[in-house]
């Protein structure tokens, strides 16, 4: 089987793959051996499928193809579960998938991203940039500023917070905050009142199933580190656009003020350090704020919902464009693991019926075919970010292509602002890795008691017993995924100057 771009008749777009997913993607065998009635039935079924698909396509925007349509349209056509009746794991199909992976790896190019102008970023969300100042308070580590309160200062400042509406735990925090709100205001000489606001000093940005939750809980034990009052606010990638769950579409947007409320407890501690206290201890000035949303590194799907972006499928802006625009000195922590193991762990994490190593193998094969079909007509970045393709794949294959995301973060942040950790190192030598994080964040040494708590704390988000019983993935599946990820890992190891990111001995 030739690569998709090696001939006129062999070239298939992603659209054709999605249209015919109920038909095996490889050779159907010599039709001469099939009885005439079966041939006629097959042709009638194929014709009916084509007519149904054409009726959908004719109702869509003439400018777009299925590759660039809104995910809402794609979901009405592609039902991933309906495609799992075809077993692509036979010896013949395995050989074809191996060849397909070689086709993918032969066409990879990591082209640089063109940055959007700052004025375009600001114009996209003028309210965000009107709330956050260009400079922060000196002599404290966290990016904080004083916001002047106007009007009635006794009005409940948290009554309309959308995080509180959807989170019972944060509503409880808000009850505490509103009781102490007045005592934490700053009163100037001209009788004006100010409220301290803070953004994260650092972000743990990804990836899913790479240990971010465990790192979050251990860092919480350090007295100088104050996180948001919920682990994953997902504000930069989802909530600010009005996305709670992608399947629900666009809902009410969470304003930046709601996001800042998540750092209010940290702001209270920092405020005490600014004003001083009876003991003369100003250690609160060194408190750093942080947040940990595993979607921040990769999830830019909101743009397809908002603008139904066309052409190459790349979002016009990325989350890091906005983070860098408001706080160019932010520190970024990335947790990665062997992408092959990450994908299997990700598959096991989601609750679905009939999970098995055979089902995972089938989903991997289908997703590889979809990715290759996209790559035949688009760049690597376009396929990695393409929302329609992401929704069509039945495993999140694109999330393991770490280098594509990391290169895009490096277009806006300096290399020394990004700490990339490996879960395998983290698990093997927890104390050493945690101290590497402390050095990166420039926090003071922890006490012996804190050290003991850090190292003795049980691991978070361990695999469920029912999922452990499935055992490891099939060796053939592992081989396919190893070959697919090899060039991406090689580029990652080169950029990071660390051979461990090849994951050849995991």
TrEMBL record:
GO biological process, one term: hexose biosynthetic process
Gene field: CHST15
EC numbers for this chain: 2.8.2.-
Transmembrane segments: 39-58
Top enzyme category: transferase
Protein name as it appears in the record: Sulfotransferase
Any matching Pfam family: Sulfotransfer_1
Family: Belongs to the sulfotransferase 1 family.
Sulfotransferase domain ranges (all copies): 203-463
GO function terms (MF aspect): N-acetylgalactosamine 4-sulfate 6-O-sulfotransferase activity
Record's keyword terms, sorted: Membrane, Transferase, Transmembrane, Transmembrane helix
